[in-house]
């Protein structure tokens, strides 16, 4: 099944969402979406670029029995890593930077949801371990996290045994936060648990390019699960994201989990608009599997995209 839709995100000025700062003790969560420009994506060797002892780490509680680690960054740190002073004061600069150095709240929502779904119970980081108590294993499964930023949802899949491919628009994000976060969390696990973890790969570039890359490498339509957080804020980029999902997911069992705010005021996106797009495309079924309303931010949802059961007999 291969219905591919080509789209290019529109230009915007650099702007801020003003949800939460990454400079506090308790960060927010996951990451925005797709830039305009040439559709290019490449696999990068992001691991081992940053020494764990040279960075500060924060604990992020994603579940009562699961605490993850993430690199602490100021906006000045992010500007230095990217080599782009303009990102100081901007969450997004389309075509240059797509917000990956910040931890956006929907990523924590998704990591929490997945850890509960997969019955993962452990505490990573300083202090005694709780567990580990592993429920459903993802051993042998292939997972793609789109717009990964800090990569917390993908890390949950990784420690549960999946091979996880992490994609971000900026290679500097993959090298500066995604890979260090993965390495810090895996290093916090007992040796026998580390051995059961999956392996990561890293891809930099936009979603249209990623769709073409996985097709070219013949890894397209082979992902059992695709994860993405805070990536539905822009109406035009939603089309590119949906096209990438169509290219990446393996029918008939492949699924995607998307964590997003219901509405992005002043920007135009959100889960309602994405549902309409999915219905119009006609390939996936879309269901809300979780609602988050903590009174601190916009109401949020987690959507699950899956193929209709009616196609199972064709595969």
From TrEMBL:
Keyword field contains Methyltransferase: yes
Methyltransferase found in the keyword field: yes
Predominant subcellular localization, coarse grouping: cytoplasm
EC number: 2.1.1.85
Gene Ontology biological-process annotations: methylation
SUPFAM superfamilies attached to this UniProt entry: S-adenosyl-L-methionine-dependent methyltransferases
Pfam families noted in UniProt: Methyltransf_16
One Gene Ontology cellular component: cytoplasm
A single GO molecular function term of this UniProt record: protein-L-histidine N-tele-methyltransferase activity
Gene3D superfamilies given in the database record: Vaccinia Virus protein VP39
Subcellular compartments: Cytoplasm; Nucleus
Name of the top EC class for this enzyme: transferase
Keywords: Cytoplasm, Methyltransferase, Nucleus, S-adenosyl-L-methionine, Transferase
Family statement: Belongs to the methyltransferase superfamily. METTL18 family.
Protein name per UniProt: protein-histidine N-methyltransferase
């Amino acid at each position: 099944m291969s219905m591919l839709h080509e789209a290019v995100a529109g230009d915007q000025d650099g702007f801020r969402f003003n949800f939460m700062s990454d400079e506090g003790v308790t960060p927010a969560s996951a990451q925005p979406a797709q830039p305009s420009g040439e559709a290019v994506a490449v696999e990068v060797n992001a691991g081992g670029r940053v020494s764990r002892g040279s960075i500060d780490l924060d604990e992020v509680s994603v579940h009562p029995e699961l605490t993850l680690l993430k690199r602490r960054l100021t906006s000045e740190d992010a500007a230095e890593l990217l080599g782009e002073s303009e990102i100081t004061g901007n969450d997004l600069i389309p075509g240059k930077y797509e917000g990956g150095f910040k931890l956006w709240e929907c990523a924590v929502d998704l990591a929490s949801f997945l850890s509960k779904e997969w019955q993962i119970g452990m505490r990573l980081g300083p202090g005694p371990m709780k567990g580990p108590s592993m429920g459903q294993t993802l051993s042998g499964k292939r997972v793609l996290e789109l717009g990964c930023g800090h990569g917390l949802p993908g890390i949950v899949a990784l420690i549960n045994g999946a091979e996880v491919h992490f994609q971000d628009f900026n290679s500097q994000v993959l090298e500066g936060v995604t890979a260090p976060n993965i390495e810090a969390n895996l290093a916090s696990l007992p040796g026998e648990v580390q051995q059961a973890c999956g392996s990561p790969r890293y891809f930099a570039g936009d979603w249209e390019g990623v769709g073409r890359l996985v097709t070219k490498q013949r890894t397209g339509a082979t992902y059992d699960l695709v994860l993405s957080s805070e990536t539905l804020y822009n109406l035009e980029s939603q089309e590119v994201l949906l096209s990438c999902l169509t290219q990446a997911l393996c029918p008939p069992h492949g699924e995607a989990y998307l964590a997003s705010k219901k509405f992005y005021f002043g920007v135009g996106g959100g889960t309602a608009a994405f549902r309409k797009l999915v219905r119009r495309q006609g390939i996936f079924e879309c269901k809300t599997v979780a609602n988050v309303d903590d009174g601190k931010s916009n109401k949020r949802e987690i959507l699950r995209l899956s193929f209709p059961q009616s196609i199972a007999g064709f595969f």
